[in-house]
Amino acid sequence: MTTSTSSSSLPDAPTFTDVLEARRLLAAHLPPTPSWTYPVLNEAVGATVWIKHENAQPVGAFKVRGGLTLLASLSPQERAGGVVAASTGNHAQSVAYAARQFGAPCMIVMPENANPVKAASVRALGAELVLRGAVFDDCRTIAAQIAAETKARYVDSGDEPALIAGVATAALELFEAAPRLDALFVPVGAGTGAAGACLTATAVAPECRVIGVQSAQAPAAYEAWRSGAPATLPNKTVIEGLSTGQSFKLPQQIMRALLPEFLLVDDAEIRSAQRLMLAAAHTTAEGAGAAALAGLLARREEYAGKTVGLICSGGNASETELAAVLAAPLTS
Fold first, then answer.
1. What is the mean pLDDT of residues 202-207?
2. Residue 141: which CATH number?
3. Residue 264, domain extent
């Protein structure tokens, strides 16, 4: 699963066996995160809702599972050459955290207006931080160029089998806590989380319907899934973890085969869902972390009385974002 994506070839998709191997690797580094249900939220939604709390990870987001899995799979020589990644923040923290764990030099490229909470975390983890590019897609190009020039290992945020296998372990833990879910809502930026959830659900919970949720203000992944062709679309969302203007090949390959439903929700709906999570589930979620709840609220009537899972992918909200959350209307 260590195939580089710097060439035009697409690496092989991970299998559920790779997910199990990732869980074995991660056992030495991460305890399982909580999976909880909240009576007030259940009443507000009209369903039994299980939240998978990836906001409880050491970097505040699910992506650390993928970073550790990938760095664990590299040879000592590859680690010594260093890693380079681009991100709006959570992939950056994931790779920086894993690089520190395995003693690998690390450079991260983030947008010039990066979330200060995430940027500070990257620096604190010992990575070299480069603030260049207006949006994530610019950073991705810059990081790939730096990796090519320095011979470092470019760690793409989507087209990496080890990342997908690693983040898939979150869904596996949720199904172990709540094995009879009717549906599982998963936020989609690059699509690694949704792809991993599909792999896991197909293997251990085939009756569970996995549903991807993306911002309508950055719908590239949705359009690629819908049309079956790569997509590049305007990226106008303020939801950092969903801020992608281009689709990613490998997650799309998996989602087109295994994801039965994909929803678009407005940024305003995501902000309202963030506030509801804060009020009814005692959970500070960043925008992407509340997107799954926004998707469930958009399908509230369909899932009334059922048992539903939500991946809260992260909790790295800046003070500015939290102010916007508190100003948002409270969904009832």
1. 98
2. 3.40.50.1100
3. 16-61+161-327
